[in-house]
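The instructor's notes for this session suggest beginning with a concrete chain rather than abstract definitions. Hand out the sequence below and ask the class to guess, before any prediction is shown, which regions might be ordered.
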Amino acid sequence: MMNKHDTRELFIQQYLTAVEANMTVDQFADFLGIQASSVVRYRNKIAQETGIKLPTMVKDNGGEDIEMPTTLVGEDAYKKVSLENDPPKRIVITAAQNATPVHDEFLSTILQYCDIMDAELMVIPYRYKNPTSIYQSLQEKEEWWDKRLVPYLVEDDVTVHKELRVMGHVKMQPTATNPLSGFDSYTGRMSAIFGHPKIQLKTIPTPSKSLPKILSTTGAVTRENYTDTKAGRKGEFHHSLAAIIVEIDDEGVFHQRHIHADELDGSFYDLDSQFTTKGRTTGHRVAGLITGDSHAEFIDKQVKAATYTNEDSLCNVLKPLHSVVHDVEDFYRRNHHHRGDPFLAYGKHHLGRNNVEEGLQVTADFLDEISDDSRLTVVIKANHDEALDRWLRESDPKHDPENARFYHYMMYNMFSNMKMTETGYTTVDPFVFWCMNPDQQKGLTKKDFVKFLKRDESFTIEGIEVGFHGDKGPNGGRGNIKAFTKIGPKTIIGHSHSPGIEEGVYQVGLSARMDLEYVSGPSSWLQTHCIIYPDGKRTLVNVINGKWKR
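After discussion, reveal the predicted structure:
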C-alpha cells in the first residue's frame, strides 16, 4: 500500500509524462479513471501543499484548465530572528532544503508539538542543486521553500541562550560527510546548532573545569532529494527526518535532545510522550536507557538521583524495559595504572579504599539499588571491569597481605572452573562469579534482575546493538566512535566519557563525577545517557546540575 508521498510522486511523474505526450486533461483523467476536475484539484492541492507548480493541460475543447497562482517562497521571505532579549523556554529547530517538498505529516506533527508544548519553531534553510530531481525540473527558479515554512525560516546567527547559538547563516551541502568539521573553535565557548539533514553531535573540550560545548546538527523536515551520484546516494542514506528540541530550565540551563520522525506518518517520541498529527499521548515506556559509564565507587550523586531515584528521575518517568550500564566496576583499589605510585599506595593503605572485595561490594550494592522487577539491568563487559581479571593474572599476593585471602579464593575458583574449548581454554568471569559467590561480603542480591554480558556478546534493543563497550574496535584495533560506523548495525557505545553521534553510532558520556583523579586539562566529558524509544529511534539526554529536562 502506497503512502501519501508515494501516491503524490507517482501522480507527478505520470502528469509530466502526459504533458510531454501532449495529452489533454480529459485524456489524462480517462487514463487515471477519474474526472478531469479531480486532476485539476489534485494538481492545485500539490501546489498549495508543496509549492510545486505543475504545468497546465489543455482541455478536449481546446481551452486551458484553471491555473492556481504560484505558491513558491523565495529567499526574500527569510525571517530575521533575534531571541537574545526574550528567549522562549522551548524551541524546536530543524532544516529544510530548497526546491524540495516537506514531509507533510512530520511538519504537521511538529506544529502540533509546538502548540501543545508552547514551543517556538525555527527552520534553517539550506541549498542543493539536483538537476535529476523531479521537483527541481518543475521550476525555472530554484530558490524556493514550501510556503508553510515562511514564518519559521531563519538565516541569522541567533543566540537562543547565553551558551547556545543557532547557526542559521551557515549553509552546508547536504551531502557533506562530516558537516561539523572545522567548526570546533568557530563559536568560541558557546555551543552551536547547525542545519543539516545528517545527524551529527560532538562535544568540544573547554578549559577551567567548565562544561564542554556541544556542536550538533538538526536533521531535516524536507524529503530526500539527491542526485544519483555516489555523494548523492550517501547523502540520501544518512538523511534524517529529525529536529532538535531545546529547553531552558528555571535555573537558566539549556537541555537539548533530538526527535526522529516515522517516515510514513511523521509521528515521533519525545521522552514518555508520542506526538502525531492528531496530538499527544503520554505514559509510553521507552525500550532502553543506556547510561553513561557508571564507575559505581565514584558515581555522581546528582546524576544517580536524576537517573534512578528521584521521583522525576529518568527511570521513574520513562520506565525503561532495559537499563544498560557501562564500566559499572571502577576497580580503583588495585588498578594497574596505580602501580609504582607510592603516594596512592600510602593513601589507600592508611585512609581507605585498599580492600578489593569491599570495592566490589560497593558495585554490587549499586546494581542492587538500581535494579528491580520492572526492568532488566544489562551489564556490559568493559575495560574497568576487566582490571579485576588483570589483577588476578599479574599481581603477587605475597606483597598484598590486605587482599591475599581474597586473591587465593578467586584464583582457586578460577582454576576450578577451567574448561577446554574447541579453540583453547576458558573459565568463569571473575566479577560475575564473585557477584554470585562472594567470599566475605554479601555479593549481589537481585540476581534475577541483572544480566551480565560477556565480552563481544551481542544484545539488541529494538534493533540497536548495545553489547559493545567501545574500547575495542574492529579487528582488535582501539575503539572509537568512527571505528564503529564501519561495522554495519546501529550501535550505542560508551568508554570515552564524551558523548557523540556519528552516522549510526551513538556514544554516551559518564555517570561518575566529572573530576575523577586522572582528569587533567580541557575536557569534553559530559554526563550523558541515551534513550531507545519503542520505534528504535534514539536520542542523547544530558544531566546538568542534577536535571535532565526542563
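Then share the key points. The two ends are 41 Å apart (CA to CA). The chain has 13 helices and 25 strands.
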